[in-house]
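Retro notes - structure team

What went well: the batch runner handled both jobs without manual restarts.
What didn't: labels got mixed up in the shared folder, which is why I'm recording both outputs here explicitly, each with its sequence directly above its tokens.

Job 1
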Amino acid sequence: MRLRTSEWVMYKVLFAVLLIAVSTQFAIADVGITLNPIAIEGFAGLQSFAVGRHGARVVLIGGRTDGLHRRQPSMAFDAQGEPQVITVLDLEQRRMWTASLTGLPSHVLDQWTSTNACFVQSDSLLVIIGGYGIASSGQGHRTHPVWSVVHVGNLIDAVIAKRSFTHLISSGTGDAFAITGGRAGMFGDTIITVGGHRFDGRYNPMGGSSFTQAYTNAIRRFTLDTASATPRLSYVNETVDPLNLHRRDFNVVAQIFPDGSHGYTAFSGVFQIGVDLPYLTLVDIHHKHHAVVDEFEQRLAHYHCGTVPVFNTRDSVMHTFFLGGIAQFYATRTGAIERDDSVPFVNTISRVSRARDGSLSEYRLRDTMPGFLGAGSEVVLRDQPGRTPHDVLSLRVDAESHNTLVGWVIGGIQSTAPNIFWTNDGSQSIASPFIAEIRLSAATTSVYIAPADARREDPVIIEVRLYNDSVEVIAQDLTPEAEIGLFDINGRNVGGQANITRANAVTTATFSTLGLSPGTYVAFVLDSERTATKLVHVVR
């Protein structure tokens, strides 16, 4: 077959791109992890909890003692699943202690029995923000507007000695702390929360009036003041980005960036505005700013799960491991990557690697979780040389470090099948008692996941035109099946039925704004798998 000049150029470009991808892939030394399950007598399981560490001992606070929440409002997040104790585990001696929460101030009790709180440990102090559960004041289900700080070593000692620990807890309240499903980090004495939402009322997958929900769409900053004997947490400010920080129930993992600075990366999360699917993009979070990484798509881990950040000093590559959980994509027995928009539980152990040039690649480890495990689990890193203050393992991964114990994964949800949501009667999943040692592997353990097949360019929203009583969203290169919507920043469709006109490759959707309050909205285009968004500012 003889190729035209234009075809030769196309194939040469594709070949060059392939060579770059392959050279990048093989320039990264393979790094893996293995899991060695252990058992601690008496530990019945927990998921979506906060954890503090002191040596090889950890304290588990809040979470749920049941599995995936039920879909019926009257049965979802019931009182029976709220833990009434805090749990201390000695992960080396494999022992357990518990202590009742009776006697705590009501606002602290609310938070310490809640689920999906934000938390981070700064030196010996565990900082907990928000959490969702049942208010002891009779206000029903809500996101608790609460912060608390406790010295982890002193708390663990009190639990083991069966002493009161109420006096060890500093706490306060305020609307800025009402966050659930977000994640926390720190830059010096600045504590940050990323994403999450405020959810008040009873869960209902069909919507309705049983709850109110507002995504933070923000990185919030707080100051941790430890100058006195009583630590205090104070709200400072926030950066709002409704297009890129509209995320919850995700992983925000400490990183060492190619320039040597430390920060965090927000991986995936739910839900995209306009469609009930996870984000595939990442957001890098630096001390003073954040940046969207939209040239890379993460496909194998989309909900909060146990994560292990390892910076390999051998080649200056930042690896982040994801232990099971929930994802829109999974590997079949033949190794093919399949898509399931039900976003099922998976048993995949995956890795995202950032090379020294900043390029990202995704890998599937050949080993898997021992079942549909990992969602809502936590990883505790072992105290060892190379562990940074913000919890990255920075060490040389080679034959000498092979099989090194680096930490433990604890708890999470264990499901009997990938998709159980619509059949869930409470028996299809549990809060798992799974605990496993995590060991480094320098052996060849992973399979490179090639980027998704090339597809047409995403649709382009050319322009948004505002009038006194309407807004026009103008897009190009859409198929006849494309959908255009207008949403508020919490993902609610507020545009109703649009008036659609088409001329050549340009599509115009006109929405009435008569019933809309002044504020920020999002124009959203969905065309098969292709999406586009643009902010709309309605003023009066």
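Job 2
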Amino acid sequence: MLKRVDFFRERWRIVRRLLLLPALLSLPSCSSGPVTTGNPPPDCSQAEVCDGVDQNCDGRIDEGLTTIYYPDNDGDGYGYSDSPTEACTPPGSAFITQDGDCDDTDGEILPGGLEICNGKDDDCDNRTDDSDSEVSGAPNWYLDADLDGHGDPAVVTTECTPEEGYISSSDDCDDTYAGSYPGSQEFCDAEDNDCNGEIDDLELTYFEDSDGDGYGSATSTLSAGCALPDGYVLNNIDCDDVNTLKNPTAPEVENADDDNCNGLVDEKLTSLAAGSYHSMAVASDGRLWAWGYNYQGQLGTGDTVNALTPIVVPDLTDVAAVAGGDQHTLVLKFDGTVYAFGDNFFGQLGDGTTHDSSVPVWLEGLSNIVSISAGGRHSLAVDRSGTVFAWGDNSSGQLGNGTLDRNPTPRPIEDLSGVAAVSAGLQHSVALLADGSVLAWGDNERGQLGDGTVVARVNPGRVLSLPPVTSLECGTFHTLARSSEGEVWGWGWNQLGQLGNGAATDATLPVQASDLSDVLVAHGALVHSAAVTASGEVYTWGDNRDSQLGDGTEMASLVPQELNSLSNIRLLAAGTYHTLVMESDGTAWSWGSNLYGQLGDGTTTESNVPVQILGLP
């Protein structure tokens, strides 16, 4: 029995020791009890020092005693804030306690640094260049509203990078007009083009018009300013300045004399004209010949059958001039009356209806007309007093009446006077004034108004930067003008080189055609242009995919090139894709597209060289 009791006592002592073991293990090492490890107890009463040891036994090392250091690799006295190191001593010679640097590779970039235009945050304020109001040394930029490369000194901004429309130049004298800037050519346009402080400071040569027919004598001149002197004109193409019956627009009669001043005597043809796909010629006997496309009656023959060779327009006599539109034709008679035929969907015939006519219809209300022009779908005329009449389509303001409303009958353009001649493009119009200046209105998408913009205009406005002009002709989207010096100037669509200045970009201001002088007349078409010189040479330029340049190839030309196969040319006309000329002996030639017989050679075969027009008188 005693032995069983001892056994249970021993078992209880073992259990108690096991139960007390966790408590014994949790006692601190610095207890007053005996230490069984053999090491001396730590002194937890010591003050914490920065040495990487936990002196105060709180489980933390060097608490509250370390310092944050920052690398200062560029030596500017400011450490790089994005690379902090906490330590008792600097981890290296390039570490400092001052932070704030935003670029530790450039000693010029630091807090409080000088902010300059360099694309960097020089003063470390999280702002760069123009976003920092404290930027120093930013340049001035000047508004170039008219896009002529010269800024307005009165409209300036100071910033590192200019806003759109601002440039560094500040020498413009009129930032609303692209034709005015230092070094620009001075023109008679009531502007200080060259910014020299003077307006229209030019001296021009004028020619005496003794007989008052609007054409001057080459032998009697006067030098004066821009104001047209009484009794003088800008052209010198009258061949008899004492006889009003002899001038470039007079009818040629059989009298052994040159009545129309074209250098020919009693010639059989007096003028040529071309529409989009049809052609016309006026004979000296007053008859009109027509050929080509006739789907809408634009040949005036009473039917809609195409003609592969010229045929006489019946019941039409005493014709002085003819003009071809897209699909309609205008005729001016010697008595100053006007007739029209062809397409009339937009009222371009001017008879008060919108019905096509395959025979000539008389335009009531027009009299004493001296100039006519047929556009794409509108028509223009000028009377002897200088008043302009317009009718037909007006979707782009090409009638110049301040609206977009079409007119089926001719109506005068208000506040427009002193006009000598007009020309109509597809949807724009131009007028030549007696003083040699030019007005334009209508569509301007390609710059064909010549005012430095591409903004359409419903009222006439001046063509800018243009020397005095003696004649002009509209192409489809461009305009050509002959200056009083015999140069050719053009503006508008030029993607295919139809302005002849060696470029292939549109021109919203007039540019001079390259290497052309002593020009008699210039005509524009859709994508090509042509000119005849006083000595009878023919020049063509622009697109040539339809052989319209007549040089034997289909290669385009950005500058005028002479057609050596022709000489002694006196008359010229350009259709959409074809060209017509007449020699001094009366022989007429054509080239280009011939899909509808518009070349008049009896075929529908395209020709890249001149072919003779058959059947003309």
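One thing worth noting from job 2: The domain at 269-612 is CATH 2.130.10.30 (Methylamine Dehydrogenase; Chain H).
We'll revisit the folder naming next retro.
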